[in-house]
Design brief:
Layout lengths: L1 H25 L16 H6 L1 H4 L24 E14 L2 E8 L2 E8 H4 L1 H9 L5 E10 L5 E12 L15 H6 L1 H7 L1 H23 L3 E2 L5 E2 L11 E4 L4 E5 L4 H9 L4 E9 L11 E10 L3 H20 L3 E4 L8 E4 L5 E4 H9 L9 H10 L10 H12 L8 E4 L11 E2 L2 E5 L1 E6 L2 E8 L4 H16 L10 H8 L5 E7 H9 L17 E2 L2 E2 L6 H10 L15 E2 L10 H5 L3 E11 L7 E6 L6 E5 L7 H4 L3 E5 L5 E3 L2 E3 L2 E2 L1 E6 L5 E5 L1 E2 L11
Parallel strand pairs: 3-5, 6-10, 14-15
Antiparallel strand pairs: 1-2, 1-4, 2-3, 4-5, 7-9, 8-9, 10-11, 11-20, 12-13, 15-18, 16-17, 18-19, 19-20, 21-22, 23-31, 24-25, 24-27, 25-26, 27-30, 27-33, 28-29, 31-32
Helix pairs in contact: 1-17, 7-8, 8-10, 8-16, 11-13, 12-13, 14-15
């Protein structure tokens, strides 16, 4: 019964807060009628300028500090701060509180002598989470803590919800992303991440302005979503009665501007790709693309290296950054100050595998080599596609220090200039850092005849079923026929860059409101506020899956017949069922069904299990959950990855339907990893 009792307690506490609000409103002190507060300082301002702000009230003959009326405090010594009360300790006639604003925390000292009996009585009723305005003077306590001695306390907003318990904070990953506002309140490091993200984008703009680039805006709703290999989102424009798509790239419109004579242009904007979600991918993300006339991919390499170095110095304080947990020694130091390494894609593959694809003369030979190395490919794939698959498999994850991978096969680069000395390759590079692709750049194709031929090849792929293929864009071809100068172009994933510079594990950690599967509760969206008390209770319980049976509709569930064959007890006991905790989860590349789990099974060695449940769950929903796995099954290769065990799910069909429902078995997080089911 603990879950029920917790829910009842939470509901009672929530009601108390609403009752306090009603009392305030009845007394003519409705905080929600206050429209502004004159905030003179933030907490860091007070700390940085303490010496000039500190005020020493006079003392009487006995050495006791006298109460100074607010009007007698000298000009320049009176401060007004505002923020959320995170802590309160009432000690009779005096109280301490902790106020948190944008820049940090500040201790507040509140006394009955300063506020008066009535105002002090109101203060004692304020709750953790309430937003206060505090006016007073700055001093230092006997323990040396810089504090504000309150002369006035104003309730600016009443918190009707309960913040997570202070010692454990908001730890459930799924709840953190769904309730980012609570995450920002509770976790100062999260707030710092997004402040730094803003600094990164501001510094990018400053860097490019210094190189005479012009920032522009181009359409998000387009008829032809080109410029990248990705599946677009589709929608309908009612006013024009036309189907349109959300852009997957910024490229084709920016190139039109290069044709128009705007020699250096860039855009930082949202793009949308109807693909999977994992630690490094989100369906909508921030992309920056820039194009510079009269340069090539070598010019783009110089610009990229200079910009990354500038960002590290300005945002991180130096060119050496650490990604991972430095204290535990589980990360890596990345040096952005050294010249970035440059390798062709073929050279990188040869370095890791010994295979020289420059010596491979045909598509058939390339496929034979792929078979020998267990590389899965499609029948339509050519030698260039095989080269790319080899790089993905054997090289990408090993590119830790900044490395430019150059000269990609033409088959995977439809918008890029051929290398004059080798037409099977193109003048293209990708920058890899920490095993991640950080950007993609080209010597841009400016031959409209060649471009039309490349589009025609992409049209054939689309007709063959490739949902990520480009389509012919006639207006773009028309623009190119007017003449586009030699141009270098590059695209940066801003979110991934922010992950690197803020030492964030997942892309959702640097996106304020990441894409999440909608949770359903009693046939409604979980965000439905009509049942706010119950919703609040469940979010504070942080369990996410203990919904009472009486509140779930099972009327349309079809249960398949039980097996008639009996299994002897000894056979059953051979299966080793264990509780496992999800440390990480991500979509398996090139698979629409598989999720790859990294699990703590209690042994101290991570266990990898693949499960075909992506249709029902997004990876980030499952991080931190406790699941049940069979751990003594032999390893099974799936998409070239050893899956060591099986996660248990409950599966059923709906009545009069072939639609299948799947529910991954989740258990109480109090159960330790490795606990054996018996």
């Amino acid at each position: 019964m603990p879950a029920k009792n917790n829910s009842q307690d939470n509901n009672q506490l929530l009601q108390v807060r609403r009752d306090k609000l009603k009392e305030l409103q009845a007394a003519g002190r409705d905080p929600f009628k206050i429209t502004k507060y004159d905030q003179t300082h933030h907490t860091t301002d007070i700390r940085e300028h303490f010496d000039e702000l500190e005020f020493h009230p006079p003392v009487d003959e006995e050495g006791k500090t006298q109460v100074v009326p607010i009007e007698d405090i000298p000009e320049g010594k009176l401060v007004s701060i505002a923020g959320r009360m995170m802590f309160k300790r009432v000690m009779g006639k005096a109280s301490f509180a902790n106020l948190r604003d944008l820049k940090g925390d500040m201790q507040i000292y509140v006394t009955r002598n300063d506020l008066g009996d009535d105002e002090y009585a109101y203060f004692k009723k304020y709750d953790v989470g309430d937003i206060l305005g505090v006016k007073g003077f700055v001093f230092k306590t006997k323990t040396g803590e810089i504090s504000v001695h309150a002369k006035e306390v104003t309730l600016l907003s009443k918190s009707l919800q309960i913040l997570p318990e202070k010692f454990h904070g908001l730890t459930d990953t799924d709840v953190k992303y769904r309730q980012r506002y609570v995450d920002l309140i509770i976790n100062p490091d999260v707030k710092e991440t997004f402040i730094k993200r803003s600094q990164i984008i501001a510094e990018i703009r400053s860097f490019l302005a210094g190189r005479n680039f012009m920032e522009v805006e181009t359409p998000m709703l387009v008829h032809n979503a080109g410029g990248a290999a990705a599946r677009p989102f589709e929608t309908h424009y009612n006013s024009l009665d036309e189907d349109v798509k959300l852009r997957i790239s910024l490229e084709l419109y920016l190139k039109r501007l290069i044709v128009g004579g705007l020699e250096r242009v860039y855009e930082i904007g949202r793009v949308f790709r109807n693909e999977g979600v994992d630690t490094k991918h989100n369906p909508e993300f921030t992309l920056m693309e820039l194009y510079q006339a009269y340069t090539d991919y070598n010019g783009m390499m110089e610009l990229t290296e200079s910009m990354f170095r500038d960002l590290a110095e300005k945002v991180c304080g130096g060119t050496k950054i650490y990604y991972g947990n430095k204290e535990e020694g589980t990360g890596v130091e990345i040096d952005l100050g050294k010249p970035f390494r440059r390798l062709t894609m073929v050279e990188a593959i040869k370095e890791q595998t010994g295979i020289d694809f420059d010596a491979v003369s045909s598509d058939e030979e390339a496929k034979r080599i792929a078979d020998e190395h267990h590389i899965a490919y499609e029948e339509r794939h050519k030698k260039g596609d095989i080269v790319n698959l080899f790089f993905d498999e054997f090289c990408e994850a090993k590119m830790i220090q900044p490395t430019f991978i150059m000269d990609h096969p033409i088959e995977i680069s439809p918008l890029t200039k051929k290398k004059p000395d080798d037409p099977s390759k193109v003048e293209r590079f990708e920058l890899y850092i920490n095993g991640w692709e950080m950007c993609n750049a080209y010597s841009e194709l400016n031959d409209p005849i060649d471009q039309r031929e490349r589009f025609a090849e992409q049209d054939k792929l689309a007709a063959a079923g490739d949902e990520e293929a480009n389509h012919t864009d006639e207006d773009f071809l028309n623009a190119m026929e007017f003449g586009m100068p030699p141009t270098g172009g590059i695209g940066y994933g801003i979110d991934r860059l922010c992950m690197l510079l803020t030492n964030s594990e997942a892309i959702r950690d640097v996106i304020l409101f990441p894409t999440l599967r909608t949770l359903k509760k009693q046939g409604k969206d979980v965000s439905d506020s009509s049942d706010s008390k119950e919703s609040s209770a469940s979010s504070n319980d942080n369990n996410g899956f203990f919904t009472p049976n009486s509140k779930i509709d099972f009327s349309d569930v079809k249960i398949e017949d039980f097996l008639a064959d009996e299994v002897d007890f000894d056979t059953f006991c051979k299966s080793d069922f264990r509780a496992v905790k999800v440390k990480a989860c991500e979509a398996v590349p090139k698979s629409k069904k598989l999720l790859q789990f990294t699990l703590d099974d209690g042994t101290g060695t991570d266990r990898t299990i693949l499960s075909g449940i992506h249709a029902w769950y997004e990876p980030e929903e499952l991080v931190g959950k406790t699941l049940i796995a069979i751990v003594n099954l032999p390893p099974r290769k799936m998409m070239g990855i050893d899956s060591c065990g099986m996660l248990l799910s409950a599966v059923n069909n709906k009545k009069d339907s072939d639609e299948e429902e799947l529910h991954l078995l989740m258990v109480d997080n109090h159960i330790p990893a490795g606990a054996k089911l018996c």
